[in-house]
């Protein structure tokens, strides 16, 4: 068993950022990765946080309660002693081990993961039912999304699943009633990902145009729409122009934790916190990806056209400069390489990207309750400031 593997591996997921998400989530049980990186060889900077801390809600890119700033946690982390005993998953207690015995580490990881999965099976159905009846629209939408996802994952390939369709219908209806752009974003993406043979009627009532109206100034709906089924070259060009007229690129990646945290009690049990956090990253690993329509629009054969080349030049610069996420910025870099950007320009962008990437939390950072608190704080910052904003804050705190 590869201990880095999350429970949910969608067959269509190929992007590197999703792999990174999976690794971060699986880091809660990735002890052997920690050992290989020297976690137990030298004293580490660690934050010790009470098991019940950091469980309250976060408003996406707004105010939040009780979750400490991730950047501050990086700056304030006290030194800790090297150990041969560690808590893999918050709520399961510490285990003793031989850091040099990889087979033992893998066995302990496997056992911890099984216990976490067993607890998930016990608690998640009740959580979903409570969330579906919540008065908070975001929490309610997340409940229907989780139900649609679980039914979709449990179906046999190509089989029609009425339950999944029902959950998607309800999610789409919540989005249609709401003016919240995040709910609408999750619904549009979920209706595409979790549909089976037919698209639910309510999902057909959702549109990129309506999504953009709910989130003015954000290019992400238009970029996402460029990869839609049946979208021809003319419409892609129109969507690209509307994207370029926007102010920023803000996807919903990294916001799921803030939603699920709002559904948690203040005194949430440590093991429940572990399950809730992993569920949030599972949602993020499925949704909020710019589909390949942008790269298809700016593929090499299309760049021979003068008008298309000019538009793709603008798109590449816009995505590189204005995206709140590393992945969409890298899409811009990829188009820039196709356009023949200078080596100096590409090197400068790569240096900036690498500097931010180095601030991304490592797998070993998220083990145990203190690691879970760091993970919660980091994704709270992502929800509020965007991924690149959260990483810049970590940069500043580390200086």
Number of strands: 4
Helix/strand/pairing category? mainly alpha
Separation of the first and last Cα atoms: 39 Å
Tally of DSSP helical segments: 19
How would the global form be characterised? globular
- Structural domain count: 1
Low-confidence stretches: 1-66, 74-83, 156-160
Strand content: under 5%
Mean residue pLDDT: 80
Q: What integer value in Å does the Rg equal?
A: 21 Å
Quaternary form: single chain
| Helix and strand run | HHEHEEEHHHHHHHHHHHHHHHH
Strand order of the largest sheet: 1-2
Q: What share of residues is helical?
A: 55-70%
Largest sheet: 2 strands, antiparallel
List the helices and strands and how they pair.
Blueprint: H1 16-26, H2 31-36, E1 44-45, H3 70-76, E2 79-80, E3 85-87, E4 94-96, H4 102-132, H5 137-154, H6 162-177, H7 181-193, H8 201-204, H9 208-214, H10 220-225, H11 233-244, H12 256-262, H13 270-286, H14 293-297, H15 306-322, H16 326-339, H17 343-357, H18 368-385, H19 387-398
Antiparallel strand pairs: 1-2, 3-4
Helix pairs in contact: 1-13, 3-19, 4-5, 4-13, 5-6, 5-7, 6-7, 7-9, 11-15, 12-13, 13-18, 15-16, 16-17, 18-19
What does this structure look like?
It is a single chain. This protein has 399 residues and is mostly helical. α15 (306-322) packs antiparallel against α16 (326-339). The chain is built from 19 helices and 4 strands. The protein has one domain. It has helices at residues 16-26, 31-36, 70-76, 102-132, 137-154, 162-177, 181-193, 201-204, 208-214, 220-225, 233-244, 256-262, 270-286, 293-297, 306-322, 326-339, 343-357, 368-385, 387-398; strands spanning 44-45, 79-80, 85-87, 94-96. The protein is globular. The strands form 2 sheets. A two-stranded antiparallel sheet has the order 1-2.
């Amino acid at each position: 068993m590869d201990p880095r593997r999350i429970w949910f591996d969608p067959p269509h997921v190929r992007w590197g950022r999703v792999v990174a998400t999976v690794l971060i989530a699986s880091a809660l049980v990735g002890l052997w990765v920690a050992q290989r990186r020297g976690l137990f060889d030298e004293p580490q900077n660690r934050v010790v946080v009470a098991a019940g801390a950091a469980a309250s809600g976060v408003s996406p890119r707004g105010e939040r309660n009780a979750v400490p700033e991730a950047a501050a946690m990086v700056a304030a982390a006290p030194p800790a002693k090297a150990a041969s005993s560690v808590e893999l998953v918050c709520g399961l207690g510490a285990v003793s081990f031989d850091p040099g015995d990889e087979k033992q580490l893998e066995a302990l990881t496997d056992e911890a993961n099984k216990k976490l999965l067993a607890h998930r099976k016990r608690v998640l159905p009740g959580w979903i039912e409570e969330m579906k009846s919540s008065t908070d629209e975001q929490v309610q939408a997340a409940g229907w999304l989780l139900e649609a996802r679980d039914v979709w994952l449990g179906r046999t390939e190509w089989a029609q699943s009425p339950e999944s369709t029902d959950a998607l219908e309800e999610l789409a209806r919540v989005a249609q009633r709401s003016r919240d752009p995040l709910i609408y974003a999750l619904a549009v993406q979920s209706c595409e990902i979790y549909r089976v043979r037919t698209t639910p009627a309510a999902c057909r009532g959702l549109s990129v145009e309506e999504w953009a109206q709910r989130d003015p100034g954000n290019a992400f709906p238009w970029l996402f729409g460029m990869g839609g089924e049946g979208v021809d070259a003319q419409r892609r060009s129109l969507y690209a122009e509307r994207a370029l007229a926007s102010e920023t690129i803000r996807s919903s990646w990294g916001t799921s934790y803030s939603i699920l945290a709002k559904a948690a009690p203040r005194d949430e049990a440590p093991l429940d916190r572990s399950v809730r956090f992993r569920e949030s990253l599972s949602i993020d690993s499925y949704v909020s990806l710019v589909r390949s329509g942008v790269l298809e629009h700016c593929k090499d054969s299309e760049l021979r056209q003068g008008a298309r080349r000019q538009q793709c030049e603008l798109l590449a610069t816009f995505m590189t400069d204005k995206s709140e996420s590393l992945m969409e910025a890298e899409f811009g870099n990829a188009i820039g390489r196709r356009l023949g950007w200078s080596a100096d320009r590409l090197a400068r962008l790569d240096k900036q990207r690498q500097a931010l990437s180095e601030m991304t939390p490592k797998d070993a950072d998220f083990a145990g309750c203190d690691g879970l608190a760091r993970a919660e704080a980091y994704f709270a910052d992502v929800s509020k400031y965007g991924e690149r904003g959260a990483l810049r804050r970590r940069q500043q705190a580390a200086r």
